[in-house]
Design brief:
Distance between the termini of chain B: 39 Å
Number of domains of chain A: 3
CATH class of the largest domain in chain A: Alpha Beta
Shape of chain A: globular
Largest sheet of chain A: 9 strands, mixed
Strand content of chain A: 5-15%
Number of helices of chain B: 2
Helix content of chain B: 10-25%
Radius of gyration of chain B: 22 Å
CATH topology of chain B: Porin
Strand content of chain B: over 45%
Helix content of chain A: 25-40%
Radius of gyration of chain A: 26 Å
Oligomer: heterodimer
Number of strands of chain A: 13
Strand order of the largest sheet of chain A: 3-4-5-7-6-8-9-12-13
Structural class of chain B: mainly beta
Distance between the termini of chain A: 83 Å
Number of domains of chain B: 1
Number of strands of chain B: 17
Number of helices of chain A: 17
Strand order of the largest sheet of chain B: 1-4-5-10-11-13-14-17
């Protein structure tokens, strides 16, 4: 009897469930494929949606956002911010899930819906392993570059695709393939493939790819944008136009300059990223980290960057020196049988002291104790450069005549954008600021412009947003805007509200902010202006 | 405490079995059919998880549903009740900011779930069986199975994509007070007011991210029903 009642109860419950019908709602599908460019989760997560008015209000709520709106203009479109996850490969073809942003313009205006052009964007170097350019909730804190591309491109009707890069965010790759042309261009193409697959699944499914592809990026991303252009053109894929900005394109020339004492701003953070990347890709930079780094910092440095710690903590905890890239006791070079060369190289590796160069104090700050890079690295690298010089050292823009022997220099040579004598066949704008203390404008943008000087007129355009001669040419309003903003900032920093700095201190602040904060919005505006012609 | 419980148990069993043995003329079984009004007193943590702005909470709309119950007379004063409601579609609404970005949130119907919520109660019935009107009180357990859990279009828009909802089953104490009016040997009407504890952890899964909230529904129910005894 009790058994019967129990069965009745179960049957009753089952009938209730069956009779009411229905089932739980589904969520996005996880792809089982890990092939290049596979969208890992479809549809992707929309992190946020903001119409044009909301976007303007949210960006305008912070001082930096308001300044950005002044440069980028008021949003014409709203934006749906998607977080895409996709499959790509590391430097030695290790498959890894990576992530990034897909920003889809929204709104009723014709420029905000239907077929729209795509901007494939590569961000600048981030030291925070958790960086996520797709996250609009961090626009006012850690994701200023996301805000920049949202305001500059997506809010003006461009679909924006921007990977976070392998080694960041959800990627399980234990390093970042920094300045690795083949890996980073491959990841950009994988992100683009995944984003194109995601577009029809979004809330704004009627917004589609109109077939125009623009590529841009800043700093590291400038290099990545150019590498992506190179890879796509080699594959015969159409590109509408490209605008790399402030990138280290001529890697061999740039590092020749740095190693010989032109220590760029931020070099103690960039160098572990470079060396770890190339060590993982080529395996021959060192046998032990102490071969390359001073004993003070060698332990664990090959897994340090990108970091889960804030940059300030890296310095405070003694994991990296703040500025001392090189030993203040510089090496005495001995080239057997060649005392003249020995003397020249010894002088070249000394602490910079040229009073005529306004960057000399910055360069000199790159020497100290404890230091990051061993003198032996500088000596061996410089010997290689002396025997097989980069063109910039001997009056041309050419890459070294032969492949370098020293492994670090060889890695830079392989990834230098001049390698293979490549030249673009898509319209290209190279933008930067000539006083850039981090990625030297003349060494990178100047070298590439000279290297391509024989190309048809108009194919490659160089834009210096900060010309000594003053604004001129089609981008003169942007140049004037940049220089005016620099003067206003300089004056503001000397007011009580700006901290009451001396003129010299204010100049130092401008220098500190030049590459990472001041130039990006103006070059991005130039890129958008350039793209709008097509 | 333990000794008291051990001594009390045989005595209670004697009372119950004795009562059942004597109850030749009074029907031991009753079924009830009526209506359930469920009033929720929700307390929920703000939603937490990736990309969730602060202050997002939930509210639940009260429901009404048919009530079914089976009662077994154990003795003059004790009755066991197994009660069900036809599983109601319980609707969840956004509570917090008017919008998330530009997506409406506050007051939006964002999700729903059906509840199969049987309650097992032991009730003490006052007065003897000669009285037509007999109040009672009861305590027991309430078990809730959530199913047919759906996110609405508004919920998907707020969450950022198609969303599946996980609500683990809940078990908690229940208490009731009521009154039964015996119209005839077989027919009666009753009304009761009950409260139970229903706590669960909501998980909303959207495109690989999980947002959570611990929810106490705090349902209180009013029942009006007719009973048939046999």
């Amino acid at each position: 009897m009790y058994r019967f009642r129990g069965s009745l109860g179960v049957a009753f419950a089952a009938a209730m469930l069956a009779g009411c019908g229905g089932s739980d709602s589904p969520t996005a599908a996880q792809s089982t494929s890990t092939a290049h460019g596979t969208l890992a989760i479809s549809p992707p997560l929309r992190i946020a949606s903001a119409d044009a008015a909301t976007l303007q209000a949210q960006l305008g709520a912070s001082a930096s956002g308001a300044q950005l709106l002044k440069i980028a203009g008021a949003p014409s479109c709203g934006i749906d911010f998607y977080y895409i996850k996709f499959w790509t490969a590391g430097a030695v073809n290790e498959m890894t899930e990576s992530s990034g942003a897909l920003m889809v313009p929204t709104g009723a205006a014709p420029a905000c819906s239907g077929p729209r052009p795509i901007v494939l964007y590569a961000h600048g170097t981030q030291f925070d392993k958790a960086f996520n350019i797709a996250d609009p909730t961090a626009f006012n804190t850690t994701n200023g570059e996301g805000a920049l591309i949202a305001a500059m491109f997506a809010a003006q009707g461009y679909i924006v695709v921007a990977p976070n890069y392998a080694g960041y965010d959800i990627s399980t790759l234990g390093y970042h393939p920094f300045l690795n042309a083949s890996q980073q261009s491959g990841e950009m193409i994988d992100a683009l493939t995944a984003a194109r697959a995601a577009l029809p699944t979004t809330f704004a499914a009627s917004t589609s790819d109109d077939g125009k592809l623009f590529i841009s990026g800043y700093s590291e991303g400038g290099f990545v944008a150019m590498a992506t252009q190179k890879a796509l053109e080699a594959a015969g894929k159409p590109i509408t136009a490209v605008a790399p900005m402030s990138g280290p394109y001529a890697l061999e020339a740039l590092f020749d300059a740095v190693i010989t004492g032109n220590v760029n701003l931020g070099s103690t953070l960039f160098t572990p990223l470079v060396t770890t990347s190339y060590q993982r890709a080529y395996g021959n930079l060192y046998s032990a980290t102490t071969d390359f780094y001073s004993a003070t910092y060698a332990t664990g440095i090959d897994t340090l960057m990108p970091s889960t710690l804030p940059v300030a903590s890296l310095f405070q905890q003694g994991l990296l020196p703040q500025t001392a890239l090189f030993d203040s006791t510089t090496p005495v070079v001995t080239v057997p049988g060649n005392p003249n060369l020995s003397a020249q190289l010894t002088a070249l590796l000394a602490v910079p002291s040229n009073p005529a160069n306004p960057l000399t104090p910055l360069f000199a700050a790159g020497f100290g104790t404890p230091y990051l890079i061993n003198n032996s690295v500088r000596v061996n690298y410089t010997l290689d450069a002396a025997l097989d010089p980069d063109g910039t050292a001997i009056g041309s823009a050419a890459l070294a005549a032969a492949a370098p022997v020293y492994p670090l220099r060889l890695a830079l040579y392989k990834n230098d954008m001049r390698n293979g004598s490549w030249a673009p066949n898509s319209p290209t704008l190279l933008c930067g600021g000539e006083n850039d203390p981090t990625v030297f404008f003349a060494v990178d943008t100047g070298t590439m412009t000279a290297f391509w000087s024989t190309l048809p007129a108009g194919l490659v355009t160089m834009l210096d947003v900060d010309p000594i001669a003053g604004p001129a040419g089609p981008f003169a309003p942007i140049q004037a805007g940049f220089q005016t903003s620099q003067m206003q900032e300089f004056a503001f920093l000397q007011t009580a509200a700006g901290g009451g700095l001396s003129a010299a201190a204010a100049q130092q602040v401008l220098l500190q902010n030049y590459h990472g904060t001041s130039v990006p919005p103006f070059c991005s505006l130039a890129a958008r202006t350039f793209f709008s012609q097509f | 405490m333990t000794k008291f419980a051990l001594r009390a148990l045989p005595i209670a069993l004697l009372v119950l079995t004795g009562s059942i043995a004597r109850a030749d003329q009074i029907p031991n079984n009753t079924v009830r059919i009526g209506e359930y009004w469920v009033f929720y007193h929700v307390y929920a943590d703000n939603l937490s998880g990736p990309f969730v702005p602060p202050g997002l909470n939930l509210s639940v709309k009260d429901v009404q549903t048919p009530y079914l119950a089976y009662l077994r007379r154990l003795s003059t004063h004790f009755t066991a009740e197994l009660a069900f409601g036809i599983p109601p579609l319980t609707k969840t609404y956004g509570k917090g900011p008017a919008t998330i970005g530009s997506v409406p949130y506050n007051g939006q119907y964002i999700s729903s779930a059906r509840w199969l919520a049987p309650s097992a109660l032991i009730e003490y019935v006052f007065c003897d069986e000669s009285h037509k009107l007999r109040p009672y009180i009861g305590v027991g357990l309430n078990y809730v199975v959530f199913y047919d859990r759906n996110s609405t279009a508004a919920g998907n828009a707020a969450a950022g994509g198609p969303t599946s909802i996980s609500l683990p089953n809940s078990i908690g104490p229940a208490a009731t007070v009521g009154v039964n009016y015996q119209i005839s040997r077989n027919w009666s009407v009753m009304a009761s007011y009950s409260a139970s504890r229903v706590e669960t952890r909501l998980e909303a899964h959207t495109a690989g991210v999980v947002r959570t909230s611990n929810i106490s529904f705090g349902p209180q129910t009013l029942v009006i029903a007719a009973g048939f005894s046999f």
